[in-house]
Amino acid sequence: MTYLGIEFKNYEELENWNKGEHIREYKKLAEMFDRNPSMEISSMMSDIAIVLHDRFEMSWEEIEELEIA
Description:
Layout: E1 2-3, E2 6-7, H1 11-35, H2 39-54, H3 60-68
Helix pairs in contact: 1-2
């Protein structure tokens, strides 16, 4: 299976990659927010946090740890 030009062996591998991308984006936004807090960044972080919680079943505590790290 190919997605965005990346070859995946199965759906689980694709889901793990997708979760990792959301986590990386959340961490990047957390760093940006730390340097220059804004409502826009906060809103984007909130949107990704909801996806991490609802779709990837991460706890709110795990998401908060990503933000702190």
